[in-house]
Write a structure and sequence with these properties.
Nucleotidyltransferase, domain 5; 3 domains; flat; Actin, Chain A, domain 4; single chain; alpha+beta; 340 residues; 18 strands
Amino acid sequence: MLLGAMSLFSHDLAIDLGTSNTCVFARGAGIVVNEPSIVAVNTVTDQIEAVGNDAKEMIGRTPGSITAIRPMRDGVIADFEAAEKMLGYFIRKAHRRKSFVRPRVVIGVPSEITQVERRAVKDSAYRAKASEVHLVEEAMAAAIGAGLPITEASGNMIVDIGGGTTDIAVISLAGIVYSKSVRVAGNAMDEAITQHVKREHNLLIGERTAERIKIELGSAAPLATPRRMEVKGRHAIEGRPTTVTLNDEEVRKALSEPVRQMIQAVRDALERIPPELSADVCDRGIVLSGGGALLQNLDERLRLETGLPVQVAEDPLTSVVFGAGKMLSDFNLLRKISID
């Protein structure tokens, strides 16, 4: 009787292991974790001080003995040990700290991940006490999460703009006909803003400030009403705290290069897909997902540059994890599309 009751409660998890954020979806419960992919480590004791939201609060404010680490870079594991501890923490948190649970896990990864990077992701998940690990391409998971009819014999184009990578895919009959991953996405935009503010205003700002500027002022095409905001930082030469005012036009100029590279990757994809699927994409258009899809007027700019209909997924930030989550209850589909 106890065994029957236990089997009714599923421990399976879907994880979007992102460069900026990690989302965990538990079967039957929805999204149970959505926190920054950051680990704070004490360099003296080598102990983990904090993970996720708590670690993000420490960025730029830590004493010398504590370092805030981002284990993921460009969508793949850059720090193996920190990634393993972070995954373990998030899996335990998803299961309310129960240490005996060994879940089956589906993880979204960039489409051009190497064999070595693939192995690093799987090993980290196994060491974090997963019983089975299945990897799926983020673009495929995003397409499922965005509700695209991926099993039909017609082309569906998805552009998933995360923190570290922009993944572009054309999907037909539950298979990826074309995929491309470029390592230009949300973080590259933040970095472009940081460099612009330093170059033009002699102001040093942290990554949290850069991200806030991107959200409030960032755009890919002119806004209907101009915007301005005050930005605080440290003067690069004089070293004192300083405030400058930025406007949306200036930030748009700062973002022009990463935006151009992302749009060029989409244009390359359109040139390389088979003619029959091109016709489908012309009819159905392009779907944008991922946090980068929230950049103001990016859909409008893409529409202008490609001449195709462009729409943003209903909840772009969670498309990948919801798509991976749907596969937890459809193992036949998972077998078809996993890249193990």
